[in-house]
Write a structure and sequence with these properties.
Helix content: 40-55%
Shape: globular
Distance between the termini: 45 Å
Number of helices: 14
Order of helices and strands: HHHHEEHHHHHEHEHEEHEHHEE
Largest sheet: 7 strands, mixed
Strand content: 15-25%
Number of strands: 9
Strand order of the largest sheet: 5-4-3-6-7-9-8
Length: 314
């Protein structure tokens, strides 16, 4: 990417993200207004508000008609409609946070661990809700289809590390009893919403120490393993084996190093945020799975080549 294009994307992330954070886009959706009007409504400086709104219009996040600023429908779907399939506002806020740990790479290289001072603006709500993002909603039916094609008789699924609920909702829609299991602080974000959905049961705990009581037919590990050490992943896989029915499946939804087109870059994310996280290869997963007793190992490539499914049968 050329430097001017890089500058353009960085400006868009930060300025649009901040405008979303302070609520100005939502406010203008509720009632389009002039810059003087919205500045008065939100108690902002008029000149600074005009400069921001002009820039948002230049970046196509607002439209202007006779001095009145309004929100295009596409931007409403992306940054206002929180219940919609295309809403990405929480992920914008999480991206703004991520700039802090990313900037600590020199510290990480020197000390071999994240700079915990960069965590200070972390929001568990932005993170969990951000993981229920449009790309994941689009790919969730494909993921569930592959799981059920490999085990059509499945009746119970444990979605381990599944607090965002994206995959669990699709399993539940297919009539599968689904346990959504995650850390208490993560589950707190979505527990009320998920608990109201038929076929979903919410449970809390630390997957590196214990799992929901089995037996279940599918142990689904979604975006979990790249945040764990190899030792913790082996422990989780061993517990999955113990809790699965005979011939049950383990399905790992993650990036494979050397196969995901963003795998090595995600590993950079992890070393700035997770003390022991990394992105692992197919060979490493196969070694852990075979060592535990899983067989018929295979990798399924998804339509979004960022992600792969690693599947094993008990």
């Amino acid at each position: 990417m050329r430097i001017r294009e890089l500058q353009k994307h960085l400006e868009e992330l930060i300025f649009v993200g901040q405008a979303h954070r302070i609520g100005i886009i939502k406010e203008l959706h509720q009632r389009p207004d002039t810059y003087e009007g919205i500045a008065k409504r939100m108690n902002f400086d008029a000149r600074s508000t005009w400069v921001l709104l002009e820039a948002l219009a230049e970046m196509s996040y607002l439209t202007i008609d006779n001095g009145v600023y309004s929100v295009p429908h596409e931007i409403y779907e992306r940054l206002v409609d929180e219940g919609g399939q295309d809403y990405e506002g929480d992920f914008w806020l999480f991206l703004l946070y991520l700039i802090n740990p990313w900037k600590t790479l020199p510290y990480v290289l020197k000390h071999g661990e994240p700079d915990k001072s960069s965590y200070k603006n972390f929001s568990i709500s932005d993170f969990i809700k951000g993981m229920d993002s449009p790309w994941k909603k689009r790919i969730a039916p494909e993921v569930v289809n592959i799981c059920l094609e490999n085990l059509p008789e499945a009746k119970i699924v444990a979605d381990i590390g599944g607090a965002p609920g994206t995959i669990a909702k699709v399993f539940a829609q297919r009539g599968i009893n689904t346990i959504v299991y995650d850390l208490p602080e993560s589950m707190q974000v979505m527990a009320d919403e998920l608990s109201r959905i038929t076929n979903i049961e919410v449970q809390t705990g630390d997957a590196t120490k214990e799992l929901p009581k089995g037996p279940y037919d599918i142990a689904f590990l979604g975006n979990l393993c790249h945040g764990q050490s190899p030792e913790d992943n082996v422990r989780i896989i061993e517990m999955c084996y113990k809790h699965l029915h005979d011939k049950g499946l383990i399905v790992i939804f993650d990036n494979l190093r050397g196969e995901s087109y963003r795998g090595a870059t995600l590993a950079l994310h992890m070393i700035t945020q997770s003390p022991k996280g990394d992105v692992y290869s197919r060979e490493e997963y196969y070694e852990w799975l075979k060592g535990t007793g899983f067989r018929d190992l295979r990798v399924e490539n998804l339509s979004d080549s960022t992600w792969q499914l690693i599947i094993g049968r008990k």
